[in-house]
């Protein structure tokens, strides 16, 4: 590595640079122009625009050269990929940096989960910046693997890759001034405080902002987003696998407010990242919906870098990292080449970087205690019961009241009425907690589906037509040290091991995508017609979201945030 | 002062706010819109937009309400006003904050000068943020009152009103990697490093940026400014008393790059601040020259606040200081009312704030040692001499070669050829240094002009037709403890005392303007036809600027930066 004197000498043109990108149509997000120039790179940074001598010359032949793209808010666990395999998925799409909230890791592993992400995401062609999760556990109605206090948050802030405090989902706690939430905001002093306030408007939104929150990614309606922009919240325009808000929000964006906007995915599946793209998809879609290409590319680069204070990211000028994308068409924006610190790391969809040696997996997180009989529900009295009803493709559920089917003195699944048994087993500290309930919407005709991905505490969740297959699924999840399985007639039909915290696979991208497809196929073969059966399953324990959820502590009335009884 | 809980309660509307500004046409520089709303203020900050109850309601009747204006780069000494009297001049023009470089104070008083500015600018209706001067002394060819090292700079950085390191005028030192200059940049780590690089372009400009500089205010040509923008320098669009670059630079600015622009005055006289205006003048002129009002107002507010990391300045939204301006017309932008932390501090040109109790003046800075005979120049040999020629309204001078007029064996002024005697006397540490030379351009027919404002070391500078009046002027400057005087026939014709470091008056704004006018009138009456005789005088010792200058160390060849002889 050269010292400052040497770098300045290279910039002055007195000795050759490492690399020279010539004939670039530079998308200059600083001057707001596209202009033909050369770009000299040395020691991984841009050292000058203009004409330079260099050890290696790359002729761009008039192609556009823009800064690599940045995702302003992402939960990397939603891809079920380790950081290096996530890089494999997104680098060909031009991603150079991501601001992540390792909320799921933290719910399972606490600070160890955050440290694992920091460690496993080093030296990749995507730089990871981390917001420290602010809501672990999400509610007192589920048993998570860890709890993060304001002191824990403060302890993490010194690391330069920590960009601030992650989404403050307990937004009533914030605007009502709960000491715990204000302490978390204070812990992030000098860094960025991310928000999460779906539907919050008016005076309570004013209070939420006044408390110190600086961003929001939950606006689905344009007028809600407009109000948030007006109040000074940085607007993360979300386009993920399920939540897709771009079409609604783009008409709001102008060059006069784009500085306060970023693109974000929040949650996106590995298969969608590969086939549809990442932030490049948001840029493409925004341009198609009328945004000026310069505006879209500023949002995707410098505006996000500035908001999160990623000081040398998001532009092509002296001092900035040489994170570039090359492409041929502003309208049908498709990344042809991705460079990281000047090195070609993807070309024409192909990932060219060498994967680093894997870091040790975090400790085992499968710590279950249960008896087969734990899934049984005695049919006491003859009353009706509360049943969770799935709303396809949404994280909300409905509460319906049904008469249970009874066999041998026990409540059982009723395939005719699509009422299946659902169980959540605590897996972090062997409490023996088991919650059992019933759910409508899966339409399984046989077998069981099980998963250790179950928001937000990520206990074991199993849905099934019979206890034997449910137990078999749980046993297989234990054997895998976390994962997702489809079991029928005592036999594992498909499975994906998720040994990293029970959330993430240790396998390569292609293998993960293929196994997820096999799992979905198996579920469909067993009668389920949901598009994403395991995603639907994972949201059934998300206790902060209405109406009825099941956690290891039993049924939760998520409207009034209190425990409730199976018996209606 | 309310605690956080109480403030949130006010924001939620549960108790009345201090103030409510109703029926505002809010210039929302965050959302890039103008929209009708109310603004609630409590404890000096905005706590919400919308409808609120308040102890006091201010009906704006549809007037525009915008954030107060910010000057991105100003030397307050150029106004010759103390901070409170500067506030009196600019607050009626809508200024709410200034980023100043107390370069002149520092040259005279060192860190004490910076501390004096910090202290004397507290609790004013204009907030002062300070860049610590980086070039004290400017060159080794003049004797300043102090020297600031990188360690001195580092020592100041912790204060939250210190925004960074002031303009790095030794730009060759920076791009050539001089250790002293790199150390000053390093001292500003985490804060902003201001630049000053007139005419610098190409590879050396790349190196200047790479070294860590973040802004420039010296572009006079559009293409120079464009290049600086492209390289990531924040562009300070300068419009001062003498340097006026707006007309040239405005065509460069668009909503796609305005985030990287600020308005700045650099140097502006008290009389110009009062009559023409301050940043409001830049906004008005920019709009007249085609800038969109929203763009101009963003440049004048949030863009500058963000660049200098003035976290709660430059916008009207929860958490921001309630620094507002009200006005009626976007095209002929004229500030009607100025509010500081919600309090009306100026209306229709009238300053309404109470001036704070004056802080103690810094120590005396007049420490001269001289003999009347020091001004005499023996006529050795019969050779020609170097004479400084003034270029009206510019800080550059020319070197001309003339035959001196001799009387009684001494060189003397020659009124017919407009060759007057010029002397610079060191005044900081009684070294007894006296530089004597000759100057063309003042056209005085009698008397002498003297000043303790003489860039950058601010020694005593005197020009005159005869030694007796020059000595009388020096004596009067000593009596005043610094100032500016016009003397003729042994009599003081006009004077302005500048007891604050010999740079700034302790008198009110109106008195200062009137005395400056009297000084100019006296000079004109004595035959001078320069528009600003004392400003011209003050630049004759500015040793870094070509071609020929006079300091206490004698004549300086400012092209080759070396001492030179009177004898050609």
Mean pLDDT of chain A: 97
| Structural Rg of chain A | 25 Å
Largest protein interface?
Answer: A-B, 55 and 55 residues
Beginning-to-end CA distance, first to last residue of chain A: 69 Å
Principal-axis shape of chain A equals: elongated
Q: Which structural class fits the helix and strand makeup of chain A? A: alpha/beta
Q: Report helical residue fraction of chain A.
A: 25-40%
Strand content of chain A: 25-35%
Please tally the β strands of chain A and state the result: 30
Features:
homodimer; 568 residues; alpha/beta; nine-stranded mixed sheet; eight-stranded mixed sheet; 17 helices; 25% helix
Describe this structure in words.
The structure is a homodimer. With about 575 residues, chain A is α/β, with parallel strands linked by helices. Chain A has 17 helices and 30 strands. The model of chain A has no long low-confidence stretch (mean pLDDT about 95). The N and C termini of chain A lie far apart (about 70 Å). Chain A is about 25% helix and about 30% strand. At the A-B interface, helix 1, strand 2, strand 3, helix 8 and helix 9 of A face helix 1, strand 2, strand 3, helix 8 and helix 9 of B.
Short description:
The structure is a homodimer of 568-residue chains. The first copy, chain A, has 568 residues and is of the alpha/beta class.
Give the SSE map.
Two copies of one chain form a homodimer.
Chain A: H1 4-11, E1 17-28, E2 33-42, E3 45-49, E4 54-59, E5 64-67, E6 69-74, H2 83-90, E7 95-100, H3 103-109, H4 111-120, E8 127-132, H5 150-156, E9 162-168, H6 171-175, H7 179-187, E10 192-195, H8 202-210, E11 215-216, H9 222-230, E12 234-238, H10 246-249, E13 261-264, H11 270-275, H12 279-288, H13 293-299, H14 302-307, E14 324-327, E15 335-340, E16 343-347, E17 350-351, E18 385-390, E19 397-402, E20 405-407, E21 410-412, E22 419-425, E23 434-440, E24 448-451, E25 460-464, H15 467-480, E26 483-488, E27 491-497, H16 509-525, H17 533-538, E28 548-551, E29 554-557, E30 562-563
Parallel strand pairs in A: 1-4, 1-5, 6-7, 7-8, 8-9, 9-10, 11-12, 12-13, 18-23
Antiparallel strand pairs in A: 1-2, 2-3, 5-14, 14-15, 15-16, 16-17, 18-19, 20-21, 22-23, 22-25, 24-25, 24-26, 26-27, 28-29, 29-30
Helix pairs in contact in A: 3-4, 5-7
